[in-house]
Every structure is written in structure tokens, then in C-alpha cells.
Amino acid sequence: MEMTIMKLLQATSLTKKFQNKIAVNSINLTINKGDFVALLGPNGAGKSTTINMLTGVIQPTDGRIDFDGRTSNNCEYKNKIGVVFQNSVLDDNLSVKDNIMARARMYNKPTQIQPLINKFGLESIWKQKYGSLSGGQKRRVDIARALINSPELLFLDEPSTGLDIQTRTAIWNVLDELRHNMGLTVILTTHYLEETQNADYVYIIDQGKIIAEDTVDQLQKKYTKNILTLYYQNGEPKNITVSDKNQAIQILSKNSQVISDFAYRPGTMNDVFMNLTGKEIR
Ligand SMILES: Nc1ncnc2c1ncn2[C@@H]1O[C@H](COP(=O)(O)OP(=O)(O)OP(=O)(O)O)[C@@H](O)[C@H]1O
């Protein structure tokens, strides 16, 4: 079924200068409804500054933000977004329950809390002080809190930093469910390349500029090579660049009589980043 693409948020020539430093340099972003968009870049690239502008925490030096006809300092805009900041904004001395309930009281029509408790497994830590939670537990509470106003667009600023793979997977499962069931749009900043692998669209940012943008498939096509290595029964192994795995299979079947083994290494987002910037992301 062909889905109509609906533009949800557009940032044009977005720029932020701090004194003499240009943290974000005239970037353009288009976020379509229901998409999972990743903003990928190394430390200091300008990811948080971008998110802070898009969420109305700081004002851009230049450029425009348009979300369904509204701009970022409009209060209706703020009602439509949820934000999980890099550093939590919850009160360490309050229980999970009191933190969540205090947030719910800020909205006229908060979402039902119980489904969030269930989804994020908050039952067993509900009465515990937020400050005493583990990193992964805190993140689950942070995300639940950001969803209380039933946002259309959820911003996550490096939500997985320091979390173990189980917690990351659990969080991603919940977010995927929300995307599919409620059409939630998600913008994520990350320096974990593997987190971009499931994104619908990726912006790669370095030194305040978007240096590449596309779907994961296209980025890998444009900026990486798939390498097929043939190990011969007699002679040196040979590396061949192939366009895709089908071409690899063709070559393998043609050579099946003479090879003893093979290896296929498809291009990765790490190669994309390496090829664009000449450096590893971490
Ligand atoms: N308030 C500020 N005053 C001066 N410079 C700032 C300010 N905030 C950010 N910067 C600078 O702007 C640049 C971009 O920072 P930003 O926090 O947006 O990067 P980031 O991509 O989020 O990095 P990280 O992955 O480390 O969080 C950095 O060089 C940073 O030092």
C-alpha cells in the first residue's frame, strides 16, 4: 500500500552561534510524519544544539523552524513534542510516581499513566526515589515522562549512552510499538552507528554541518563498498568489490569449482562515516 508522505517538521538554514563559535551552521532538516530519523555525529558535532533549537530550549541565531505551521517558541508547538534530554530533568529526591504525577498535572489532558507504567516496566520502581535508580531505569522513566502529553514528535538526545544492550533493546521495542500503533515520529541523536541502522532517514552531522543525508540503504550504496573475498584452492585470496549480494552469489557460483572458501562483508554505517569524514566515529 502506498502511504502518503506528510511533512511534520521543517528546519531551514538553522544556525546557532555561541560568541565566535558556530555550533550549527545553516542546516536544513525535513522530518516526515511517523518516521524514525537519526541525527548521527561525533562529540561536539552540534547534535544537542540542534535538538535544543528544535525543542525551543534555545533560540536559533538564524534560520526557521516550522512544525505544522508553528514555530518553536509557540506553546502549542511545545504541547506537540516530547523531549528526553541527555541529562535528566527529573527530581532526584522525588519518587518515580511523584515525578510522573507532577508532570501529568501540567497538562489539561495527560495521557493515561497506567499504560506507560506497564510499557516501561515502572511498577517495581514506582515508589523508589528517582535519584536512587540505575541508569537504565532512569531512562525508562525519562521516556515515560516525555510521553505524558501524547506528543506527535519525540526527541531523544543520545538516549542510549551508557546503557546495556538489553535495556537499549527494551527501550527500542517500546518506541517501535508506539511508532507503529500511534504514528509517533521520533528524532534521535546518537553516536552509536548501529542505532541508525533501523532509521528511515539519517542526517550525518559534523562540525555543525550536514555532510550527508539519506536512507541507510542509499548512504551505504553511495559511501561504502561491499567486499567479496574469494579464497582459492590454489593461489592468493582475491577481494572483489560487488554492488550487492546478488552479484556476490553470481560470482560465487561461477567460481564454485575453484574456491575453497569466501567471505562477504557488506558496507556498514561505520564505513559511511569513515568515508565521509576520514575518521572513526568513536
Ligand atoms: N552554550 C555554549 N557556549 C559555547 N559553546 C557551546 C555551547 N553549547 C555548545 N557549544 C559548542 O558547540 C559545539 C556543538 O556542541 P553540541 O553539544 O551541540 O555537540 P553534540 O554533537 O551534541 O556533542 P556530544 O555528542 O558530545 O553531546 C561544541 O563545540 C560545543 O563546545
Layout of helices and strands:
Layout: E1 7-18, E2 21-32, E3 36-40, H1 47-54, E4 62-67, H2 75-80, E5 81-84, H3 96-104, H4 113-119, H5 135-146, E6 153-157, H6 165-182, E7 185-190, H7 193-196, E8 201-206, E9 209-214, H8 216-223, E10 226-232, E11 238-242, H9 245-254, E12 259-265, H10 269-277
Parallel strand pairs: 3-7, 3-8, 5-6, 6-7
Antiparallel strand pairs: 1-2, 1-4, 8-9, 10-11, 10-12
Helix pairs in contact: 8-10
Bound molecules: adenosine-5'-triphosphate.
What features would you describe in this structure?
The chain has 282 residues and is an alpha/beta fold. It has helices at residues 47-54, 75-80, 96-104, 113-119, 135-146, 165-182, 193-196, 216-223, 245-254, 269-277; strands spanning 7-18, 21-32, 36-40, 62-67, 81-84, 153-157, 185-190, 201-206, 209-214, 226-232, 238-242, 259-265. The protein folds into two domains: 7-217, 3-Layer(aba) Sandwich (Rossmann fold); 225-266. The strands form three sheets. A six-stranded mixed beta sheet has the order 5-6-7-3-8-9, sandwiched between helices. A three-stranded antiparallel beta sheet has the order 2-1-4, covered by helices on one side. 33% of the residues are buried. Bound molecules: adenosine-5'-triphosphate. Adenosine-5'-triphosphate binds next to strand 2 and helix 1. Adenosine-5'-triphosphate is lined by residues 18, 21, 23, 41, 43-49, 191. GO terms for molecular function: ATP binding; ATP hydrolysis activity. Keywords: ATP-binding, Nucleotide-binding, Transport.
**Biggest sheet overview:** 6 strands, mixed
* Spatial strand sequence of the major β-sheet: 5-6-7-3-8-9
Shape: globular
Task: Provide the number of structural domains.
Answer: 2
Just name the CATH architecture of the largest domain.
Answer: 3-Layer(aba) Sandwich
Beta content comes to 25-35%
Low-confidence sequence ranges:
none
CATH C-level class of the largest domain? Alpha Beta
Report the CATH topology name of the largest domain: Rossmann fold
Helical fraction: 25-40%
Mean pLDDT score: 89
Structural class: alpha/beta
Order of helices and strands: EEEHEHEHHHEHEHEEHEEHEH
CATH superfamily of the largest domain: P-loop containing nucleotide triphosphate hydrolases
Helix count, DSSP H or I runs of 4 or more residues: 10
- What distance lies between the first and last C-alpha atoms, to the nearest angstrom? 39 Å
The number of distinct β-strands equals 12
Bound molecules: adenosine-5'-triphosphate
Cα radius of gyration in angstroms: 22 Å
